[in-house]
Specification:
By secondary structure, this protein is of the alpha/beta class. 33% of the residues lie in helices and 23% in strands. The longest helix is centred in the last third of the chain and has 22 residues, at 208-229. The model has no long low-confidence stretch (mean pLDDT 91).
Length: 231
């Protein structure tokens, strides 16, 4: 882990690449935690992720309690999930700025920036992709859901056509039911992204199996871009 820049718009922690590549700008992987968690949560998965990545894990801007943060407030009532849409929109814009600033600050390769989010962080990852796909090379969404306004972004098919996306979800998820993952799959398929969709016998969590698949997907995505650049 290296010291994080204090002048970026979100508090965060960083892992530098471990592959010893040296002078070449590294690919960046930005990790977005879930509701009530913090920047250390997904960062703990760093040892299982490709050593080529510069890993940056920001903290959500809304404090719920000490050590507990969110990208937007939400509640689950008799009519289902309700979110603070204004906060979600503000966090999306904040993340777009953070991504651009972090890439410059840490000398990452702007053509190889990936988002990986869990639960609420997955929803934010997809929302950023749908509004600013040009900033990203791929997205992994774990146990998340599409935000209600996700379809309102002024997208054309060409902007996200063949965009690499991996969606994983637990069949036994009692917080974000698998129906949400399937709805996400269907909506993204309609946009003709390059979608990889997986379901696992798990709850609202990651498992060795799901993490291994995610890690392999990310490594493959980075390798394909590196191979294309070398031609």
């Amino acid at each position: 882990m290296i010291e994080a820049m204090s002048d970026l718009p979100l508090k965060h922690i960083v892992r530098q690449p471990l592959d010893g590549a040296g002078a070449a700008p590294p690919p960046a992987l930005i990790l977005l935690h879930g509701y009530g968690s913090n920047e250390s949560d997904l960062f703990s998965l760093s040892p299982y992720l490709d050593e080529r990545f510069l890993i940056v894990s920001p903290r959500g801007p809304h404090t719920l309690s000490p050590g507990s943060y969110a990208w937007f407030n939400l509640d689950i009532g008799p009519n289902g999930l309700r979110i603070d849409q204004a906060e979600a929109d503000a966090s999306r814009l904040l993340l777009i700025q953070f991504i651009q600033d972090a890439v410059k600050a840490y000398g990452a390769d702007a053509r190889r920036v990936y988002l990986m989010g869990f639960s609420q962080g997955a929803s934010m990852s997809l929302n950023v992709m749908l509004s600013a796909p040009e900033l990203l090379a791929g997205v992994v969404a774990m146990s998340g859901f599409l935000l209600p306004n996700a379809g309102e972004h002024p997208l054309t098919g060409d902007r996200v056509k063949d965009f690499p996306v991996m969606v994983v979800h637990g069949l036994d998820d009692d917080l974000v039911p698998v129906a949400q993952g399937r709805a996400c799959r269907d909506a993204l398929s309609d946009l003709h992204v390059a979608l990889t969709y997986r379901e696992y016998p798990m709850g609202h969590q990651t498992t060795d199996e799901s993490l291994d698949d995610v890690s392999q997907w990310l490594s493959g995505a980075v390798s394909r871009l590196a191979s294309a650049d070398s031609r």
